[in-house]
Amino acid sequence: MSGGRLITFEGVEGCGKSTQLLLLARHLQRRGIAFVTTREPGGTALGERVRELLLDPRLVPAPAAELFLFEAARAQVVAEVVKPALLAGSTVLSDRFADSSLAYQGGARGIPAATVARLNELACAGLVPDRTLVFDLDVELAFGRARRRPSTTADNRRFEDEATAFHQAVAEAYRDLARREPARVAVVDARGTPDEVHERTKAAVADLFP
Ligand code: TYD
Asked: Is the per-residue pLDDT at 174 higher than 50?
């Protein structure tokens, strides 16, 4: 019996996707729909170790090395968690998935999309999400707080400015993806209260749970 769906949550930092994953999980629970949740990078013992490498500010991986590390964590979570759950008929909610690599390593770091897509295919063993939710929030809004911190001055704001450009590229890559794959990728307006966004999230997956 394979009634499980793979639903992935994507967007720039600060878009609220992790909160929305929790709210959708609660909703599925109330409806008696079996599910598991996971996240990338991470979700397995190996993946969580790789996550530490990826997020450590003392390490500066070359773009290709960064991509390989994300793909390594992805291959492991697909083999260990996602595939077995789907085969058992369970729905999977993943906080980030393959599209993060298309947006970050592809769109923002500049690795050709076709290259990222091929590695994604290998890591995912051909698995494609049934629905990908892209939580769309103005990057300035999401990063406003970081830039207003008192420690950010005219002398040290280059990184803040670069970070904004980087995340603008990420956001644009996500929108591009939604334009190219409208049946799979749904853009969810992430403005408003968590409850308001939750209503939009439910609407964006309603056809998967008739
Ligand atoms: P995390 O702390 O989980 O951020 P968030 O709460 O925004 O998901 O860190 C994950 C970071 O890794 C995030 O900045 C996005 C980035 N990332 C990639 O660049 N490529 C990927 O394939 C994935 C899964 C994440």
From this structure: yes
Contact call for residues 38 and 92 (beta carbons, < 8 A): yes
Q: Please report the atom of ligand 1 found closest to the CA of residue 18.
A: 6
The CA 1 to ligand 1 mean position distance, Å, reads 33
Tell me what the pLDDT averaged over the chain comes to.
Answer: 90
What share of the chain in percent tops pLDDT 70? 90
For 58, other C-beta atoms within 10 Å of its C-beta total: 4
Q: pTM score, two decimals?
A: 0.92
CA 36 to chain centre: 16
CATH number of 6-208: 3.40.50.300
Ligand 1 pocket by C-beta < 6 Å: which residues? 13, 18, 40-41, 55, 70, 96, 100-101, 104-105
In angstroms, what CA-CA distances link 7 with 79, 85, 129, 170, 205? 17, 12, 6, 20, 8
Give me the residue spans of the domains in the chain: 6-208
Q: Are 78 and 127 in contact (CB under 8 A)?
A: yes
Question: What whole-number distance in Å separates Cα of residue 160 and Cα of residue 41?
Answer: 24
Phi then psi for 66, rounded to 5 degrees? -60, -45
Atom of ligand 1 at shortest distance to CA of 71?
A: 22
